[in-house]
């Protein structure tokens, strides 16, 4: 008959389990610390880039609220080691620029930088180039700012069924009328916003050929190419589209430095 195994022989097995559990907990703690360190490092980089973006805006005589920067991709420290960052987003709010002395307001400008290159020395010292292969920007120009650039007293712009709508007081043959209509909006070869008002009317317009001619001349007078303020990151406007909150602008650029240090 086999003798029963002493109870104390089972203790090493329990100790083995405790060691494994302890090791597992230690690994979880280390992993958590690494994640925290990674996020802290990313936060430092985001604040540094935000400051550089603010400096760049100041060089262009533009103002904005503090840029919000987000460095995507995990782990961040691996990207630092490689000197390449897959995606950096920059949110700008209340951007104030100027065109020929007139203030232009962009309530928002969101910039998406892809495949950003920056050496470890650049990140460490703050000296050197941070370059993005591709930059895409979407922004909104307030209608009040756009109307001021047209320099017509009382003129108001807005959106109507996806088109740019205009309302303005006008004197035609001594009669004060209110002009209403819409415009085609495109981007010119020079990167300006091209406005073409070809569908204007005015209630109470005298039924005279001269009155219609004067209304047509007014439409031509506000059908102009409107220059935009210089956008950061060398962004070139590619498309504009009327939206309820303003004129939506889409822009892009390639091989762009996104910092102002050298």
Structural description of this entry:
Strand 5 and strand 6 form a beta hairpin. It is built from five helices and eleven strands. It is α+β, with helices and mostly antiparallel strands and 262 residues long. 32% of the residues lie in helices and 41% in strands. The strands form two sheets. A six-stranded antiparallel sheet has the order 1-2-3-4-11-10. The chain has a domain at 30-144 and 253-257. The protein has helices at residues 11-59, 76-82, 120-125, 143-150, 209-221; strands at 68-71, 84-99, 102-117, 131-141, 156-160, 163-172, 175-187, 193-202, 225-226, 236-243, 246-257.
Provide a quick synopsis of the model.
This is DUF2993 domain-containing protein. The chain has 262 residues and is α+β, with helices and mostly antiparallel strands. The protein has helices spanning 11-59, 76-82, 120-125, 143-150, 209-221, and strands at 68-71, 84-99, 102-117, 131-141, 156-160, 163-172, 175-187, 193-202, 225-226, 236-243, 246-257.
Structural class: alpha+beta
Question: Count the helices. How many?
Answer: 5
Order of helices and strands: HEHEEHEHEEEEHEEE
Proportion in helices:
25-40%
User: Can you summarize the main beta sheet?
Assistant: 6 strands, antiparallel
N-to-C span: 87 Å
Overall outline: elongated
Protein name: DUF2993 domain-containing protein
InterPro entries: DUF2993 (IPR021373)
Pfam family, one: LmeA
């Amino acid at each position: 008959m086999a003798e029963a195994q002493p109870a104390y022989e089972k203790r090493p097995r329990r100790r083995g389990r405790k060691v494994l559990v302890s090791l597992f907990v230690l690994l979880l703690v280390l992993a958590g610390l690494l994640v925290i360190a990674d996020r802290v490092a990313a936060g430092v980089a985001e604040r540094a880039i935000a400051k550089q973006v603010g400096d760049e805006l100041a060089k262009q005589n533009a103002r904005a609220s503090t840029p919000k920067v987000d460095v995507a991709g995990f782990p961040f420290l691996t990207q630092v080691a490689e000197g390449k960052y897959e995606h950096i987003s920059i949110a700008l709010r209340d951007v104030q620029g100027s065109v020929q002395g007139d203030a232009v307001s962009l309530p928002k400008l969101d910039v998406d930088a892809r495949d950003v290159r920056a050496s470890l020395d650049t990140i460490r010292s703050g000296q050197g180039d941070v370059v993005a292969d591709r930059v895409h920007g979407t922004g909104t120009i307030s209608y009040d700012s756009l109307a001021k650039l047209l320099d017509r007293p009382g003129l108001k712009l807005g959106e109507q069924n996806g088109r740019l709508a205009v309302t303005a007081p006008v004197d035609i043959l001594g009669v004060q009328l209110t002009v209403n209509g819409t415009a085609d909006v495109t981007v010119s070869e020079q990167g300006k916003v091209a406005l073409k008002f070809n569908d204007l009317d005015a209630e109470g317009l005298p039924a005279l050929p001269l009155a219609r001619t004067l209304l047509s001349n007014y439409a031509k007078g506000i059908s102009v190419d409107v220059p935009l303020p210089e956008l950061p990151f060398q962004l070139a406007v590619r498309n504009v589209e009327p939206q309820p909150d303003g004129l939506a602008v889409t822009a892009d650029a390639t091989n762009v430095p996104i910092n102002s240090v050298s």
